[in-house]
Amino acid sequence: MKAALIKGPRNISYDTVDDPTIQDGRDIILKVTATAICGSDLHLYSGGIPQVRPMVMGHEFMGIVEEVGKGVNNLKRGDRVVVPFPVACGHCFFCQHDVPGNCENSNPEHYGPEGGLVTEKGGGLFGYSDLYGGYDGGQAQYVRVPYADYGPRIVPENLTDEQVLFLTDIFPTGYTGVDWGELKPGQTVAIFGAGPVGIMAAKSAILRDAGKVIIVDTLQYRLDKAAQLTGCHTILWEDGAKDVVAEIRDLTEGRGADVCIEAVGFEPSRNILEKAKAVINFEAGSVKVLEACMSAVRRSGYVSVLGVYPTTYDNFPIGQFFDKGIILRGGQAPAHKYIDMLMGYVAEGKVKLDDIITHRLPLSQIAHGYEIFNKKEDDCVKVVLDPWK
Ligand code: NAD
Ligand code: ZN
Ligand code: ZN
To answer: What domains are defined for the chain?
Structure first.
């Protein structure tokens, strides 16, 4: 089959690889009909999260069930499904507590070159490096989906692929940001990052009847898109965090936002890029956006960290966290927890997801897709790929 392989930093190739096969009774093989590039993929692309062995990328995908393992009774060949991005068993302590992104049956623990523990057992993701379980992803014609009796959701016939594709990740992720923030009707949310995740957080805040939705970004075209799609108030991050925080305070009677959502993530330092050849070598990325969130939130407010950070860091704003009594939550979004409710919103027409798509490409142009999405060229917001073109 054809697939997008990562072969090193900034090296994504359109290749021919073996078709996936059923390896466990709870597997299905999915014929992928639509797949997307996520901001999270850029952390692998940049080398910030290293991957040495070539691996099929992609965790935002949907398709038609091609083959069903003996233990999967809720799906049959021909069903059209969307697949939540965490690989999760459905039975372990964490899955039972609605945090499938921590599933302990999807990823072993990982140790660094000197033997120290880097990540604890748990947290497998599709197409997201050997550190996250080493599962081949869905930027391909076919993908093996483990624990398929727990993750995949059947899509109503009247909804198109593009209408539901973002239920795999970015819509549940954006919703997670407001839900972790316990956003109440009338409250103000400030979202840092007007990428796909930030825009989905804004759409989610509107669904929760937010009073004011503010979005911050360093790129004007992204802010324009966010304003056009959600009617949010926009702030351009030009000269630094100080001006942004001041403007958010002006909009919130000097107190700060009730909820801040970090939808940017770490920037790999040059150092990380140089060392990315090692299997495991995380170092601190930039935490300036996280610091701005902690400054822009009101005392006793909520900060949801959706942006991805590596496991080691420095400069964590512990002083603000403590002094202001901030309620902080972060991590992989529990997509399984929200997907059915959010699919209902899409089916009822309460929210539109496909309006963020700016580029539709054949999978054969995957390298170009990564390049423009990474460099934020050609007014790119979201790239969707057809694996059969
Ligand atoms: P993206 O790269 O398209 O968007 C990031 C946006 O942040 C860009 O528009 C960029 O211009 C903006 N930005 C950069 N510096 C900024 C600053 N100082 N202030 C404000 N904005 C700034 O990516 P995306 O797809 O929207 O994803 C965003 C983050 O969310 C990534 O880190 C991704 O890994 C993460 N993510 C997390 C989960 C989860 O489960 N927690 C799921 C999906 C994505
Ligand atoms: Zn993603
Ligand atoms: Zn589990």
So the answer is: 2-168+334-386 (3.90.180.10), 170-330 (3.40.50.720)
ipTM: 0.99
User: In Å, how far are 25, 34, 99, 336 from 341, measured between CA atoms?
Assistant: 28, 22, 16, 10
- Cβ of 173 below 6 Å from ligand 1: yes
- Tell whether ligand 1 has an atom less than 6 A from the beta carbon of residue 218: yes
Q: Whose CA is nearest to atom 20 of ligand 1?
A: 217
Q: Residue 26: CB partners within 8 Å, gap ≥ 6? A: 69, 71, 72, 146, 147, 148, 149, 150
pLDDT in tens, 96-127: 999 999 999 999 998 877 777 878 899 999 99
Most informative mutation of 197, 232, 373, 375 for ligand 1 (most atoms within 8 A of CB): 197
Mean pLDDT of all residues in 45-66:
94
User: What tens digit of pLDDT does each residue of 170-214 get?
Assistant: 999 999 999 999 999 999 999 999 999 999 999 999 999 999 999
DSSP E strands in the chain: the ranges are 2-8, 11-16, 28-36, 55-56, 60-68, 80-82, 86-87, 110-111, 117-119, 124-125, 142-145, 153-154, 188-192, 212-217, 233-236, 257-262, 297-305, 327-330, 359-362, 383-386
Average pLDDT score over residue span 9-27: 97
215 lines ligand 1 (CB under 6 A): no
259: Cα separation from own chain's centroid:
19
Q: Which helix (H) or strand (E) holds 314?
A: none
Query: Considering only CA atoms, which of 167, 194, 231, 220 is closest in space to residue 39?
Result: 194
Question: What 8-state DSSP symbol labels residue 280?
Answer: S
pLDDT at residue 280, as a whole number: 34
